[in-house]
Amino acid sequence: MGDCCTDDTEQVVESVGDPRVTFVNLPVNSGEQAAPNNRGVAMARGRYVAFLNQDDLYFPDHLSRAVEELERSGADIVWVPCASILPATDEELSAGCWAAELWGVPPTLRSDSGYSPLAFYCASSWVLRRDVCERVGPWRDPGQLYVTPSQDWLFRASKAGATIRFVPHVSVLLIPSGARRGSYDRRTSPEHEYFAALMRDDPAFRERLLESAAVNTARTAQHRLLRRPVAALRRAVVFPVWAVLDRVGVHPFSVDNLLRSGGRGRQIRRIHRFAGLDRPQPGGRLRRRRRR
């Protein structure tokens, strides 16, 4: 599903040569996930739905493992942890110097599901039964939210009674465009080309990826605990507030994002500005900022 794409995405999809793989390009750019995902879900006819953001990559066994768990457990939604690549320069990639962190691991493993709203679960890591989409409803526009549309939808799914299960198998690679300044200003992404080649050609890549993610994630956790004790204390103090918000059906991070960003949708707009993507203009065109 294209959000009014202006590049060669359609030609690339057609080159796959499989009638089951189709590309639909929206006539007007929305500048966020909700509109394309809602259109894609409305067009879906299969038993399962999976989302793949434009900046993420599946390992070959991602979908099969997720569907296997859906069938085995009877869950409505499953998700996996993701390895997220930290930003690297072209020179660092040429030297093989890259690092990763682990995303999407819940802070607690509840016996019923594992889902907790106190973590970020990238939509590319989900696989779900299509009928859940009808029960939960469409993704909401970020202008209505204090959290991202993906986290809002998953939270609403949990409140609607969907069974959400964690599968501890890293099978999605993230190269977040929102963490790379000006990424939307470029037509190419050397990082994606580099890591796609490793995923395809290097049998040992996932092992090296997991080693890097384990080391860097542990280092980050230690840094936050030992070097930022005030922040750790602040989180401990507000935890009861998060628990109350969760219980009454409000995403716990709504208040945090309200205080940091100041309004609905501003978190998404801040990421867009950093990555070089402005709000859509009339006629579906995006006004892009000039590089400085």
Protein model, in words:
The two termini are 32 Å apart. This protein has a single domain (47-284), classed as Spore Coat Polysaccharide Biosynthesis Protein SpsA, Chain A (Alpha-Beta Complex). The chain is 42% helix and 9% strand. The chain is globular. It is α/β, with parallel strands linked by helices.
Provide tags for this entry.
single chain; 4-stranded mixed sheet; 42% helix; Spore Coat Polysaccharide Biosynthesis Protein SpsA, Chain A; 11 helices; alpha/beta; disordered C terminus; 292 residues
Total domain units = 1
Radius of gyration over alpha carbons?
19 Å
Strand content: 5-15%
- The rough form would be described as globular
Largest sheet: 4 strands, mixed
Structural class by SSE content: alpha/beta
Helix content: 40-55%
Low-confidence stretches: 279-292
Mean pLDDT: 86
Distance between the termini: 32 Å
CATH topology: Spore Coat Polysaccharide Biosynthesis Protein SpsA, Chain A
One letter per element, helices H and strands E, the order comes to: HHEEHEEHEEHHEEHHHHH
Supply the number of helical segments: 11
